[in-house]
Amino acid sequence: MNEEQPKNPLHGITLKAVVEDLVERYGWANLSERIPIRCFELDPSIQSSLKFLRKTPWARKKVERLYVASLRKRQRTARRAALAAEARQAGAAEGQPPTPTEGLE
């Protein structure tokens, strides 16, 4: 059962870590707007959310989907920032002034 799962972004990540990351990223209010379930709306806590999500597969699936989407968005943003920094460094190394990015249409 201890097989590698390189294509599974949730492999090795606990439900507690998923919920904590989402709460840190979105906050309880925004999280309850994105996933309208009571454990996020009424007196929310990590413990009560974990208890509910472990017993309710459809809700857990929604939370996991939001987490995976947020991971992908984070990776995309990091990749774009790295490419932009690399382009700036390449331009500076060639002695070219940085190109303006504002006002381009």
TrEMBL record:
Residues 80-95 have a biased composition (Low complexity). InterPro entries: DNA-binding_VF530-like, SAP_dom_sf. This is DUF2132 domain-containing protein. One of its GO terms (molecular function) is DNA binding. Pfam families: VF530 (PF09905). Residues 79-105 are annotated as: Disordered.
